[in-house]
Recover the amino acids of this structure.
């Protein structure tokens, strides 16, 4: 490392030594792939636009590679870790490598999908290397539960990144795209190579940036809108008249709701914006 770079961050040897000391083997079940490249975590923090006054929540910190970089840049970091061994070890890693920042760090030992409150100041940003198998539900849960999160940058499987950032008409546009768009403007923010992880995954990774915006103006609740989205994509090859028949009670009732919302009954779900799904939800029979 050059003298201009922090020596607090974890390199490949540090990660492997830490894992060996803890008896940790990354598990496929939890989608664990640890970042071993300090330049990558710096890039993630930079791309996330983390500010000195931010309170950042991180999901799945693992051995702490990204956590340390976030702690150098933000006012406060709260990490949520489900793994017993990793959760127990992380505070000691922070204390050893950034002793002056321990008062700016909180650890929540638990499942991010079950977390409804966090210690410390409310989070203003979410930055995380999300486990591939739960990336979308965790992201949507965090955005729904913590409305103060203004900016999000997540590293996910490349294919998931494409889905999240897709717009109407794109062949991978679907439920994750629409639901993420309810909360935020979403875009791809870069690609991450396989070699920066240990173990190296057999898929590529991508960064997705989300900037919170107001949800669509609608008299329908989020749950009601999401029910239409789920129904529309459950049978995505069908026209909305057919796909929404179960939701509306019949194909004819679905057609009435679609026409009232200004949407063609012959359209398919992949053609609709989140605002159009909201309009359909408002006209449920």
């Amino acid at each position: 490392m050059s003298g201009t770079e922090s020596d607090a961050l974890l390199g490949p040897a540090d990660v492997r030594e830490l894992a060996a000391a803890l008896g940790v083997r990354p598990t496929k079940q939890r989608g664990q792939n640890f970042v071993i490249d300090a330049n990558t975590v710096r890039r993630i923090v930079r791309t996330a636009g983390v500010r000195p006054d931010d309170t950042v929540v991180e999901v799945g910190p693992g051995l702490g590679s990204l956590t340390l970089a976030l702690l150098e840049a933000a006012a406060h970091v709260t990490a949520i870790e489900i793994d017993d061994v990793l959760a127990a070890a992380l505070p000691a890693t922070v204390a050893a490598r950034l002793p002056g920042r321990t008062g700016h760090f909180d650890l929540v030992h638990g499942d991010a999908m079950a977390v409804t409150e966090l210690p410390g100041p409310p989070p203003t940003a979410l930055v995380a290397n999300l486990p591939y198998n739960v990336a979308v539900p965790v992201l949507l849960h965090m955005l729904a539960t913590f409305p103060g999160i203004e900016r999000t940058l997540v590293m996910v499987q490349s294919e998931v990144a494409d889905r999240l950032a897709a717009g109407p008409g794109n062949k991978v546009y679907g439920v994750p795209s629409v639901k993420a768009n309810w909360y935020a403007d979403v875009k791809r923010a870069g690609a991450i190579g396989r070699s920066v992880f240990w173990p190296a995954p057999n898929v590529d990774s991508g960064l997705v940036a989300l900037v919170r915006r107001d949800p669509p103006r609608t008299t329908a609740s989020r749950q009601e809108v999401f029910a239409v989205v789920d129904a529309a994509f459950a049978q995505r090859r069908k026209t909305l008249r057919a796909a929404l028949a179960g939701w509306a009670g019949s194909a004819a009732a679905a057609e009435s709701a679609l026409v009232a919302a200004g949407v063609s009954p012959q359209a398919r779900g992949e053609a609709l914006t989140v605002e159009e799904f909201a309009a359909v939800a408002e006209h449920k029979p």
Notes: Residues 84-97 form the longest helix (14 residues). The two ends are 64 Å apart (CA to CA).
